[in-house]
Amino acid sequence: MRQRKAALLRQAALPPDLLRASFVERFTTCGKPNCACARGRKHGPFYYLTANLGVGLIRKFLLKTPAQRQTVQHGVAGYQAHWERLEELSQINLELLRRGQPLNGPTA
Model pTM? Predict the structure, then answer.
């Protein structure tokens, strides 16, 4: 357990492109009665970055290029991976505390 904790701490450096956001793919209808989307063939896909910046404050914008989409997907995945490592580290620390062991003990 302590070896895994040491490995998690070594991986703890923050990647510079982290994004706490969502990558969203949407298909829409335009509302024109004679359009193909009125018969089920929706427009799209359109890709968006959506970020919750606080209560009632959501930032959303269209990702127009493949490069933007790739950057956002990478940043969101990096954030999720970092969050998972933090969660695992927290669970290890909780278990060490439950066992009555110090959190900063040897890694062997």
Answer: 0.74
